[in-house]
Task: structure prediction
Amino acid sequence: MIFKMPLFSPSELRAGFHSEALVLIVVAPVWIRYVSARIRASPSAGTRILGYQLAIGSLLLASMAALLLVRPTTFFDIHLQNRGATWLPSRELISIGAVLLILLTALPVLLAQRKGPFQVNFMEQVQRLRGVLPRTRSEKLWFAVAAACAGACEEVLYRGFLLHYLHVFPWKLNIAASLAISCAIYGIVSLYQGIGGFLQTVLLALGMALLFLSTRSLLLPILLHVMINLRVVMTLPEGLPLPDDAAWPRI
Result:
């Protein structure tokens, strides 16, 4: 797989690529855990909204840096030559498999709407994260903006930029290794959600990456990722209580 390279020399870009990768691999997981911990320590509406705003700002800044390093057209017009990817099936099979993987990440939430073990599991996840989840209408609005922003920016960063960084410049790993490493890195960012959240995130990353390769564009992965993220807002219980609220249902 070969992407169109930007009009800069490799020596000028190398430091920028390594710095951006360091942000995604090291800084992002630490920053997310720090912000979520601060919100849990002081679970007020103002703290949660500030956390959502910080998430939006940091995602936009990181994405702008990635777009400066790699031309935007690279993310929406990639050219494949199957370098290290001869094991990949046809484009149609990749698309079907990617969509199935993506639907698999949304299935537990859909099943959680009906009473049963899936609903119990979903409520347990909500209970673990309730300190950072929105409660008021204004919080839900900011949370929805952050979710949509994350869907778009994370595709640019973890599928567009990170695959380019690992597979094209500067490392030139084969596509299988690049996929595995990029999916694992994306999953580590979501470790604060627990093992279940980590596994779902890795599946989502794999599905989006395969869809990116099969369609040669980030457009469809971005649209699907935004939709998947926004489903969380629509399925949250109304009037979500505070962590120490005695009315919170025990499961």
User: Anything to note?
Assistant: Confidence is low (pLDDT under 50) at residues 242-251. The chain is about 70% helix and 0% strand. The CA atoms of residues 98 and 211 lie 5 Å apart. The two ends are 48 Å apart (CA to CA).
